[in-house]
Amino acid sequence: MTVVRHLSPIDRVLVEAQRALETTLGDPPAARPYPATASDPVLPAPARRHAAGLMRINHVGEVCAQGLYFGQAAVARDPATRAHLLDAAQEETDHLAWCARRLQELDSRPSLFNPLWYAGSYAIGGLAGLRGDGWNLGFVVETERQVEAHLDEHLESLPATDMRSREVIRVMKEDEARHAEHAEQAGARVLPPPIPQAMALASNLMKLVAYRI
Question: Given a cut of 90, is residue 114 above it in pLDDT?
Fold first, then answer.
């Protein structure tokens, strides 16, 4: 017989706090193998710094995705929607671990502002979720589409010989496309203007800061 434990409000706060700490300050393990199999090239210092800046942006993007999905899941009304969000967050954990590993390989580090990025994304996710599950899933679609676009930009901008970063980004891009497709099939609503534009503006600000800090 399966015993279902109902969490108290305090339990829920502790669970969310643990998720935040693991995402921003911990080293969560990936459930899937690291996709980078190519040899690590010897990059000139400027090229290595540029690759690290792009991978730091990607790492921040995954921190934000975790915050967004966990915030949305915390207030989701439909158990199926909550499960969808938590499943997507699990794959984003893989991305987070992969980006962190690639940053280490590039002799760099994650953004110093990760707790701030997470907190802001969690708040946005919670607000989106309070509007209803259709809006919840609509945010997933728009987030993933925008992430896909900037991953395409990174594939164009990375040093030509940095195949390891490219291998990581390509798998991430495939996952993001699948998350968006599944959210659409689950009943996502199309976000009206100016929400997508505001999301893009916030994303551009994040990328500008995270590239360096």
Answer: yes
Question: pTM for the whole thing?
Answer: 0.90
Contact yes or no for 160/166 (Cβ under 8 A): no
Mean of the pLDDT values across residues 70-80?
87
Inter-axis angle of helices 45-75 and 114-130, nearest 10: 30
Q: How confident is the model at residue 75 (pLDDT cuts 50, 70, 90)?
A: confident
CATH for 40-210 (3.50.50.60, 3.40.50.720, 2.40.30.10, 1.20.1260.10): 1.20.1260.10
Question: How far apart are alpha carbons 88 and 65 in whole angstroms?
Answer: 9
* 68-83: average pLDDT: 87
The two tokens of residue 164 are 């390891």
Q: How far is CA 102 from the centre of its chain?
A: 15
Spatial distance between the Cα atoms of 181 and 168, rounded to a whole number of angstroms? 20
The model's pLDDT over 144-161, given as tens digits with 9 standing for 90+, comes to 899 999 999 999 999 999
Cβ-based neighbours of 51, under 8 Å, separated by 6 or more: 43, 106, 158, 159, 162, 165
Whole-angstrom Cα Rg for the chain: 17
